[in-house]
Amino acid sequence: MAERKPVALSCGEPAGIGPEIAVKARGLLGRDLPFFWIGDPRHLPAGTDFTEIARPAEATEVPPDRLPVLPLAFAAPATPGVLNPANAAGVIAAIRRGVELVQAGEASAICTAPLHKKALKDGAGFAFPGHTEFLADLAGGADVVMMLAAPELRVVPVTIHIPLAEVPVALTSDLLERAIRITHAGLVRDFGLSAPRLAVAGLNPHAGEGGAMGHEDASVIAPVVTRLAAEGMAIFGPLPADTMFHPRARAAYDVAICMYHDQALIPIKTVNFDGGVNVTLGLPFVRTSPDHGTALDIAGRGIAEPSSLVAALRMAHEMATARGR
C-alpha cells in the first residue's frame, strides 16, 4: 500500500476561530484522515493536547487525541478576537510552508484556515486580494478559478469580488471560456469525473429573454457554450438562474457556472451553509479551505462550528487521492 501522506493545514488568522476549529476537527477525524497544523503552538486554545513534529510523515504516528503541530514561531501571542498585525508575516509564512511541503511531496494537499486580509496588508504589506491569488503566485502564476463545493452542489463564479455594476463589462467571452475550461479540467483531474456536465447560468433575468432583458446572454455566453459543446464538452446554457438550483435541476449537472459572486454563493450557502468548501482549481497542487471567514466576534468562546473545515480536509484528501490515480 502506498504511503498515506497527511494534509497540511495552515493556521490562518491566529486571532480568529482557525486554531479552535483545527483542534475540533482533529477530535472529529482522529486517524481517519491524517493532517497536521502549521502555526505557533501559543495560539492554540489553552489546554490543547498537541504533539510537535519535525516533518509531515510524523503526523500519522501522533495519537488521535492529540493535534500534530509543525511549529512556526510568530512575532507575538494571540488574543482571540483582537487582530495583531505583528503576526501577519507568520500567517503568510505558514501558507508558504504548507505549499512547499505539498510541492516537495511530503504532504498530499494544503487546506488553508481563514485569513484576515486587512491584518495582512497592515502588518506585512500583503499585495494579494486573498488566498487564491497568493497561491497562484506561489505556483508560478497558475491560471486558477474558485469553486465552492458541497455534496449537493458545486458552483463556479466567473467574476468574483467586483461591484455588480461592473460585471457586464468584465464578463468577456475569453474570461468565460477560461473559467469553463479550467473547471472542466479540474473536475476530471481532481474529482474523477470522466465527462463532467456543466450548466451555464445566464447573466440577466430569464437568460435575457431573447434580448428583451439584456444582450449578454446571446452575444457573450451562448456562443461560448455552443463552441465548447461542438468540441464534445457536456455543457448547456445559458439557463435562467432562478430555475437552476432546485433539487431536480441540480441532478442534471455536476457544476453550475455562474456569472457573478452572489449568483453562485447564495444557492450553495442556502443548500448547505456549514458544509461548503472553497476549492482552487488550476493549481499544480490541491488546495481547499472552509467556506467562512475568521469570525473574530466568536473567537475563543468555544462555539465555532468545525463542519466546513472538516469537509475541506476531507475534500482535500479525496482530491489528492483522485489526482494520484
UniProtKB/TrEMBL annotation:
Pfam families: PdxA. Substrate binds at residues 131-132, 269, 278, 287. It comes from the Bacteria. SUPFAM superfamilies: Isocitrate/Isopropylmalate dehydrogenase-like. Transmembrane segments: none annotated. It is an enzyme of class 1 (oxidoreductase). Keywords: Cobalt, Cytoplasm, Magnesium, Metal-binding, NAD, NADP, Oxidoreductase, Pyridoxine biosynthesis, Zinc. It is found in: Cytoplasm. GO terms for biological process: pyridoxal phosphate biosynthetic process; pyridoxine biosynthetic process. Its cofactor is Zn(2+); Mg(2+); Co(2+). InterPro entries: PdxA, PdxA_fam. Pathway: Cofactor biosynthesis; pyridoxine 5'-phosphate biosynthesis; pyridoxine 5'-phosphate from D-erythrose 4-phosphate: step 4/5. Homodimer. Belongs to the PdxA family. The active site is located at the dimer interface. PANTHER family: 4-HYDROXYTHREONINE-4-PHOSPHATE DEHYDROGENASE, D-THREONATE 4-PHOSPHATE DEHYDROGENASE. This is 4-hydroxythreonine-4-phosphate dehydrogenase.
